[in-house]
Amino acid sequence: MDKMEDLPPQRRAEILAARLERSQRALSDAENALESRMKQLFRANQDLSLRESELARKLEIESTLLLGALSTIGMATVYGERERGFTLSEGANAILGLPDGEAATVERLVAALHPLDRDRIVREGRRFFSEKAAGVPHVYEHRIIRYGDGETRWLSWSITREESREGRPAYLLATVRDITEERQNKRRVRALQLRAERRVAELASLQAELAAAKERVEDTLSARNRFISEMAHAIRTPLAALTGGLELLQAKVRDDGLQDLTIARNASDQLGELASRLIEQADSGDEAPSPSFPGTAALPTPSTATAIPDQPKVLLAEDTESNRYVVERLLAELGCVVTSVENGAAAVEAVRREDFDLVLMDVMMPIMNGEQATQTIRGLSGRAARTPIIGVTAHSLQSERERLLSAGMTACLAKPVRKEALDTAIRTALISGRDVSTNQARFDHELFRRTFGDLPPAYRSRMRDAAKKDITRYAGEVLEAVETDDDEALSRAAHSLTGVSLNIGAIGIVEELAAYREAAPLGEVSIEPFREAVAACLLVVDDLYDALVSEAQ
């Protein structure tokens, strides 16, 4: 590269001019940057000045508010140095009750001390300066007698003493606050707390007494119900054997013996009614709601129509030998194939081992009672859990019936069990499968009342029993016709069932049967609503009769 001295003058001039131009541009850029920075600093200084002014205004406002608040809440401050003495803020005038314009001083404060607190506060003041640590706030409370109105007020002090340091003399700083209302409020609150504590203690004592009384009542009711159940079982068990035995004899007695048998049956009926009245009167107290047992949810009913078997396989669970014999004979006369066991545990094992169309379950049995056995059977798997179970109880009240149905029974019969009632219950249970809701029992009550009311009283109960038997029979024929897909047999059975049902106002049966027959040609349709309507109506016929007919007799 050539040296500058070796270049021609003109070339050297050009190079120097270029360098000068670059230097000028750099200088101009530096001046522009400096100017821009100066502007930024100027704006920053303006913002800082504005913020300082705003902060000063806020401090002034807050100081004013604080002084006002101190005056409002009855608070004052005290500042003191050894050489300069003590200075009290304006709030002290209001605390001491001094008139406006009259300065509050320490001497006036000491003079206002209540006689009961003066000596104590003077002693504490000496100890504060001689013994109390510096830099630590110390709190005192005392009374004063206000100037002007002479009212006694309570004051609270927080006093701090600081030692001298770095040229600053020792000083004292204190705040004083009127706490008269606060103490009064605390006393009121404490009084209310004590009163509440006494009330809580009284309530706890009353609750304990109530719980003890409730437990005694529950024990008494439990013992009473247990006695009534045992009494009912003791009375109705032999009565059931007597009634059943008389029914069995009816087919064997001829001629003159019929009158004797009728007399015996009437006496048995009267004895049964008398026993029922005695038991119901003994149990006429208010009943507690029957509990809902776990694991007793509604089980599914069969999805296809099933005709009533000609010879139903029935499991009889009965611990009393005479009753077992009588019920076995009655079931045999009804065409049932009977297997008997003596307690609920044996019934559970029998249902687990073998298929039965129905279980007739006595409620009061040893080892496992009928209610426990029913719950256990409902907890089995498969078809066994859906086996219809008819409970036989000596305690015929509605509360027990509801409890047994909640435990999983299909229906309940009260001892003594008559042949016709047993026949209806078996057929109803076989039709319904298991779970029947009485809400489906739709009746024309006026027609029901008029049908029986037009009959002589002596024939009304016979009409009721005949209607139940006919409905059971014709409903079975309908189900069998549906099962075999026999349209002609279905038409005959439907005609007969409709006539019988309308005679007593059982419109639910008629409606469900008509709905099935109307929908059947259009495609697959379930017969279950009809099955449930029949079972529900059969279950409530007796209740309707008692409510609408018996009371009118």
Automatic annotation (TrEMBL):
<dbReference type="GO" id="GO:0005886">
    <property type="term" value="C:plasma membrane"/>
</dbReference>
<dbReference type="Pfam" id="PF08448">
    <property type="entry name" value="PAS_4"/>
</dbReference>
<dbReference type="InterPro" id="IPR011006">
    <property type="entry name" value="CheY-like_superfamily"/>
</dbReference>
<dbReference type="InterPro" id="IPR013656">
    <property type="entry name" value="PAS_4"/>
</dbReference>
<keyword id="KW-0472">Membrane</keyword>
<dbReference type="InterPro" id="IPR035965">
    <property type="entry name" value="PAS-like_dom_sf"/>
</dbReference>
<keyword id="KW-0902">Two-component regulatory system</keyword>
<feature type="compositionally biased region" description="Low complexity">
    <location>
        <begin position="294"/>
        <end position="307"/>
    </location>
</feature>
<dbReference type="GO" id="GO:0005524">
    <property type="term" value="F:ATP binding"/>
</dbReference>
<dbReference type="Pfam" id="PF00072">
    <property type="entry name" value="Response_reg"/>
</dbReference>
<keyword id="KW-0175">Coiled coil</keyword>
<dbReference type="Pfam" id="PF00512">
    <property type="entry name" value="HisKA"/>
</dbReference>
<dbReference type="InterPro" id="IPR000700">
    <property type="entry name" value="PAS-assoc_C"/>
</dbReference>
<protein>
    <recommendedName>
        <fullName>histidine kinase</fullName>
        <ecNumber>2.7.13.3</ecNumber>
    </recommendedName>
</protein>
<keyword id="KW-1133">Transmembrane helix</keyword>
<dbReference type="InterPro" id="IPR000014">
    <property type="entry name" value="PAS"/>
</dbReference>
<feature type="domain" description="Response regulatory">
    <location>
        <begin position="313"/>
        <end position="430"/>
    </location>
</feature>
<dbReference type="GO" id="GO:0000155">
    <property type="term" value="F:phosphorelay sensor kinase activity"/>
</dbReference>
<keyword id="KW-0067">ATP-binding</keyword>
<dbReference type="InterPro" id="IPR001789">
    <property type="entry name" value="Sig_transdc_resp-reg_receiver"/>
</dbReference>
<feature type="coiled-coil region">
    <location>
        <begin position="189"/>
        <end position="223"/>
    </location>
</feature>
<keyword id="KW-0547">Nucleotide-binding</keyword>
<keyword id="KW-0597">Phosphoprotein</keyword>
<dbReference type="InterPro" id="IPR036097">
    <property type="entry name" value="HisK_dim/P_sf"/>
</dbReference>
<dbReference type="InterPro" id="IPR036641">
    <property type="entry name" value="HPT_dom_sf"/>
</dbReference>
<feature type="domain" description="PAC">
    <location>
        <begin position="138"/>
        <end position="191"/>
    </location>
</feature>
<keyword id="KW-0812">Transmembrane</keyword>
<keyword id="KW-1003">Cell membrane</keyword>
<feature type="coiled-coil region">
    <location>
        <begin position="13"/>
        <end position="40"/>
    </location>
</feature>
<feature type="region of interest" description="Disordered">
    <location>
        <begin position="281"/>
        <end position="307"/>
    </location>
</feature>
<dbReference type="InterPro" id="IPR001610">
    <property type="entry name" value="PAC"/>
</dbReference>
<feature type="modified residue" description="4-aspartylphosphate">
    <location>
        <position position="362"/>
    </location>
</feature>
<dbReference type="InterPro" id="IPR003661">
    <property type="entry name" value="HisK_dim/P_dom"/>
</dbReference>
